[in-house]
Every structure is written in C-alpha cells, then in structure tokens.
Amino acid sequence: MVADSQAIQTRQLSKVYPGFFKSQQVPALTELNLRVDQGQIFGLLGPNGSGKTTTIKLLLGLINPTSGDALVMGQPAGDQETRRRIGYLPEESYLYRFLNARQTLDFYARLFNMNRAERRRAVDYYLDFVGLDPSVRGRRIGTYSKGQTRRVALAQALLNNPDLIIMDEPTSGLDPVGMLEIKNMIMRLKEAGKTVLLSSHQLADVEDVCDRLVILYRGRIELEGALRDLLEKKDVFQLSARNVSDALQAKLTQIAEQEGATEVRTGRARVRLEDLFKELVARKRSGELR
C-alpha cells in the first residue's frame, strides 16, 4: 500500500505496444519507478518518444500496463472513485466549439453531479481563477484564440476541485505574459495543498515552478531529483554585488587565482529575455490603468 504522503507511485511499470510481428513491438516504458509526494509540483520531462504521454495515460487508467503497477492517491490507476479526485489538462484542448465558456463548464459540472447553485459558483470561480476576459465568456469557443481556449480547458480541469492535477503542456498557445499567469496559478494550486504533475517542453516553466523532476529517455529514467540539487554547480562559487569598480573586480580576480581558483570570470549580471519582456508589458499595462 502506498504511503499517505504519496500522490503517485509506480513500481516496475512497463508498457510495450504490440506489433503484427514480435520484432515490431515498441517498448514505450521500461520498469518505471516513480514517486510523487502530495503537495509537490513534479516535472515529467523528456524528448519526443521518451514515454511521457504513455506514463500519463497509464496513471489515468486510459491504457493498461504490460507489467508493473501504478498507484494514484493510494488506489490502482483507473479506480473510479479516485478519478473524481484528478484533474487532467491534455496537450490539445478538446472543447465543443459551438458552446461558450460558461456553457462548457456547466456541461462538465453536471458530470460531477453538481446542483445548479454549485455549478454557478464553480463556473464563475474558475473562469476568474484562469483569468478569462469576462467580455468573451458569452462567445462561442470556436471564435476564441488558442490562448483563450487554453484557459477554458484549464478551468475545466480544475472544476471538480481535484487533489491531483496532471498537466500536459499547460502554457501551449500562450504569450509570455499568459505563461507567467499560468505559472502563478500553478503555484497557487500548490499553496492550496494540491499536487501537480507537469509535463512540458518549456524548460523555463519547469525551472520556475517544479520541486522535483524526472527526465525520461527512450522509456527509462535517466535523471531524477530535487530541482535545486540538479541545477546547482557544486564546484562553482558565485558572488553578486552592485557598484563594483573595475579595480575591485581585478583585485578579487587576482585573490581568487592566487588561492587556486580556476576559470575565474568576471562580468555584468544579465536578466533573462523572458523576464525583460514580462516586466516591460506589466509596466505598460500598469500605465494604461492609471
């Protein structure tokens, strides 16, 4: 039995897709041992074909493993009651184009047996949570931009107030400011005690929000650990300061080299382009609101 603190646990989980001949079989996942603690934001990374989508499908109970097992919230993957505690945002947003945002969420809320008052509260709350512009909520989804559609899909994934949210490329189709807003939402979910399994090719997103991650390659775990430990260069010391003169830089460099330090570099701190863009847009928006 999985410990109460674990939202996901897999043991020797493997999946082989059959072919007409044995030689045509495709091993998508091989002996995956994974543990995701409750309340964590966990990154599931890897190049195309590494087994990420297969892992998600196995956890959701959409396909069966060839061998091994998976536990989700303490129960076998695919358990009907456990599914009520899971929210899923797929890579592509599959929504009814002829419905508007409110109608879409009301439809899915009915599947969770919410009464009319509960549906109204949930729809309003999650449309506000994902930041969908109130002026477009009455329009058909077929007229939405990809970013707007993505927000509705995220609201739908959260509609049942799940304990575990599985997100596949959550920032797909969003501009940099929209990406920041989604990442802030993910952090708010963590603050609320939710567990998030995040699969993304946007490594900056993963770096900004994840506690732990695993990198898959050809169906096997190649790297796993806490993000801060994986990114930290153990043999590199960094000093950051403002108003450092050229003379002081030269002196510090000389001292470091005299003490045996190698590959000593000096220079000016840089901001990431992503941060520069977001700060500029936020400043302009703030000025427009005055």
Task: Describe this entry's structure for a reader.
The chain has ten helices and ten strands. The chain is an alpha/beta fold and 290 residues long. It has a six-stranded mixed beta sheet with strand order 6-7-8-3-9-10, with helices on both faces. Strands 2-1-4-5 form a four-stranded antiparallel beta sheet, with helices on one face. The longest helix has 17 residues, at 273-289. The model has no long low-confidence stretch (mean pLDDT 86).
Q: What is the element layout, followed by pairings?
A:
Blueprint: E1 6-17, E2 26-37, E3 41-45, H1 52-60, E4 67-72, E5 75-76, H2 80-83, E6 86-89, H3 101-111, H4 116-129, H5 146-158, E7 164-168, H6 176-191, E8 195-199, H7 203-209, E9 212-217, E10 220-226, H8 227-231, H9 246-258, H10 273-289
Parallel strand pairs: 3-8, 3-9, 6-7, 7-8
Antiparallel strand pairs: 1-2, 1-4, 4-5, 9-10
Helix pairs in contact: 3-4, 4-5
Radius of gyration: 23 Å
Largest sheet: 6 strands, mixed
Average pLDDT taken over every residue: 86
What pattern of helices and strands is seen along the backbone?
Answer: EEEHEEHEHHHEHEHEEHHH
Give the percentage of residues in beta strands.
Answer: 15-25%
Overall geometric form:
globular
Class inferred from helices and paired strands: alpha/beta
Helicity range: 25-40%
Gap from first CA to last CA: 57 Å
Count of separate DSSP helical elements: 10
Instruction: Give start-end ranges of low-pLDDT stretches.
Output: none
